[in-house]
Structure formats: structure tokens, C-alpha cells
Amino acid sequence: MVTKFFCHGSLYSVQLKPNAPLAAPTAVLQIEQQGKTFTVQRTPGVSLLDTSLGQGVLLDHKCKKGTCGRCMVTVLAGAHLLAPKTRREREKTSAPSKRLACQAQMK
Fold first, then answer.
1. Who contacts 5 (Cβ-Cβ below 8 Å, separation ≥6)?
2. C-alpha–C-alpha distance, residues 71 and 99, integer Å
3. Distance CA 29, CA 69 (A)
4. R_g over Cα of the chain
């Protein structure tokens, strides 16, 4: 049985097995783009866009350089799993929850 829960703004999922100790939570981010919500597992050192695409989450994107803004997402949960905003991200938006998926790096 898989149980999902929020803790300090992050979404976690835990697989429970009868008569077994609880497993450690998996770090995931919940993001939204164009009205659709996605869950992405954390992959340290990789951009949010590359992580998402590698997990079959087809985010809208184009330049992969942080200039066009098409990969803009809203981070709903798990923002603490991302490195601070890059200069290009700060130039595009001042909203804390908005990130350029091509620029946002996983911690």
C-alpha cells in the first residue's frame, strides 16, 4: 500500500508493507504548468526540466537557456529541494513559487 502525505510543504510517498518497518519518505516536488499538476521525484544535481522529462512529465519548454520563459512552473510543494533562483529566473519573475524548470537545479 502506498501512502502520500504533505510535511512542511513537501509531498512524500511511502510504501507500507505489513509487519515491516516504515520506509523513509521519498523526496518529491509537486509542480503546476498550464493548469496541470505533476509530481516529480527529486534527482540531485539535475535541472527540474531534465528531471521531469526523464520521468515522463512532458513540460512545455523551448530554449532550455532561461530566455523564452515557456518552461515556467509553479512549485506547489518541495521548493526546499531546489537550489536558489538563478539570475535568469530572478529576471523573469519575483514570485517565490514561480521557477524556470530549465534553470531550477535540484539540491
1. 11, 12, 13, 14
2. 8
3. 20
4. 15
Question: Average pLDDT of each block of 10 consecutive residues along the chain (107 residues)?
Answer: 56 55 69 97 96 96 96 97 96 96 97
User: Residue 38: which residues within 8 A CB-CB, separation 6 or more?
Assistant: 30, 31, 32, 52, 57, 59
| β strands within the chain, DSSP E | 2-7, 10-15, 26-33, 36-41, 72-77, 98-100
Tell me the residue type at 32.
E
pLDDT at 43: 92
Contacts 24+ apart (CB under 8 A), 45-50: 45/105, 45/106, 46/105, 46/106, 47/101, 47/102, 47/103, 47/104, 47/105, 47/106, 48/73, 48/82, 48/99, 48/101, 48/102, 48/104, 48/105, 48/106, 49/101, 49/102, 49/104
